[in-house]
Q: What sequence folds into this?
């Protein structure tokens, strides 16, 4: 399966988390697979900077011409930034899900929690299994 960067971590609910080695925060977005299944994204609701989010809990909503879907936090932490460019252009998520279409940046409670997420191979297997159901 293509479009699954190996340096990212993933959830079964199709969010990704990425940490640059030099940073103490992670960036969170939705996967290429998720945006492709949703179709044209027309609205995004993200949390406010400063709030605490918890692993597995809803932190926002993404809406497309097909459906609305909750966004789930991959790890616990504090929101330190949101991608305000998505307010004017939510289609950035369709066009660039792994870079310009990022959703939030988190200061994690425990950076080691990233190790509990799926790697690219495990995520690809989960997507393949989901698509075969």
A:
């Amino acid at each position: 399966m293509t479009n699954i960067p190996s340096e990212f971590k993933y959830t079964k609910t199709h969010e990704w988390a990425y940490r640059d080695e030099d940073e103490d925060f992670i960036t969170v977005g939705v996967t290429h697979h998720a945006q492709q299944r949703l179709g044209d994204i027309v609205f995004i609701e993200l949390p406010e900077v400063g709030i605490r989010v918890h692993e597995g809990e809803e932190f926002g909503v993404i809406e497309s011409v097909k459906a609305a879907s909750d966004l789930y936090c991959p790890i616990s932490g504090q929101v330190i930034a949101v991608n305000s460019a998505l307010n004017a252009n939510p289609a950035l998520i369709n066009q660039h899900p792994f870079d310009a279409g990022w959703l939030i940046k988190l200061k994690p409670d425990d950076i080691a929690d990233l190790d509990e997420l799926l790697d690219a191979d495990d995520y690809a297997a989960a997507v393949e299994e989901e698509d075969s159901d």
The two ends are 17 Å apart (CA to CA). The helical segments are 32-38, 85-88, 92-95, 120-132.
